[in-house]
């Protein structure tokens, strides 16, 4: 239809990165449809943050998909017997959730097909990230290739794109971009073990990266800490 705006599905967790991605997609002229996952994560306050930020940034629709990743466990975020680390570590950390982004992107891809959206946005980052294999550019490129092979849209020539605009940004750069686009970071929750009120621990990897980002950007950190 003439004049119809382009559509995008944006994966939002309620955290700093994905909320910035939503603001970027909106600034590029997309009608944004946001999707979050209730997958049994410790930090459930993030789901409310995702809904609030989606509304504040003008999402057309926001869906929360229920998945029980606790059924397989294997991560400090989905298994209460594995503690969230509060010291820096090397290698892939125990907060990595097996196959999480692969699963999330697959469901977002399905919604994109239903909506007639050619773009799926995700807030993965390969610079200031925690060592997750599904946050690398190689993964995004491979997933995009698969998406165009596995879908009706791709087969019919409607190329699907997996957009990861934060991939090469530092956390400070992300914070500056989001601030310029009007993101209210006080509404976001990044902590791996935030309490039910959304207050952050200030000790986990995600909290440390967030703190460093605001400090390096020269901006006040609006996070509520325990």
Question: What does this molecule look like?
Answer:
It is a single chain. With 226 residues, the protein is α/β, with parallel strands linked by helices. It has one domain (7-217): 3-Layer(aba) Sandwich (Rossmann fold). It is built from seven helices and five strands. The protein is globular and about 50 Å long.
Salient structural properties:
single chain; about 230 residues; alpha/beta; Rossmann fold; 7 helices; nucleotide-binding; queuosine biosynthesis; ligase activity, forming carbon-nitrogen bonds; Rossmann-like_a/b/a_fold; ATP-binding
Can you lay out the helices and strands and say which pair or pack?
Elements: E1 7-11, H1 16-27, E2 31-38, H2 45-56, E3 61-66, H3 100-115, E4 119-121, H4 137-150, H5 152-155, E5 161-163, H6 171-180, H7 205-217
Parallel strand pairs: 1-2, 1-4, 2-3, 4-5
Helix pairs in contact: 1-6, 6-7
